[in-house]
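Run log // design_07
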């Protein structure tokens, strides 16, 4: 959903029939494709709506590149956090497995 004042990115150049049906120009297909690619890359719908004005005529702008780079940095930080979570979970699984096999209590940092 678009932010107040930004309008619907799919309505750019679209006309509405008397019944309210949207009739979009061919360029709308390009915008939809870009939006789908950004969504598939993990960007939120809010971020995508914010970025659409900076994808002018299918061409990147400096602002778009800066925002995409910032999003990539955010994803990279999240990957690092998830890798740490996975490593801690592996440790817990190792301890629980040892406990199941030996009956010894699970201990943090046990070899």
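design_07 sequence
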């Amino acid at each position: 959903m678009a932010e107040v004042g930004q309008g619907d990115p799919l309505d750019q150049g679209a006309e509405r029939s008397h019944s309210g049906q949207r009739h979009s120009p061919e360029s709308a297909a390009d915008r939809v494709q870009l939006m789908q690619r950004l969504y598939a890359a993990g960007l939120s719908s809010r971020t995508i709506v914010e970025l659409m004005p900076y994808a002018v005529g299918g061409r990147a702008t400096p602002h778009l590149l800066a925002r995409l780079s910032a999003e990539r940095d955010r994803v990279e930080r999240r990957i690092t956090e998830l890798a740490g979570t996975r490593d801690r979970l592996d440790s817990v699984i190792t301890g629980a497995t040892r406990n199941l096999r030996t009956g010894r209590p699970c201990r943090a940092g046990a070899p």
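Confidence is low (pLDDT under 50) at residues 1-6.
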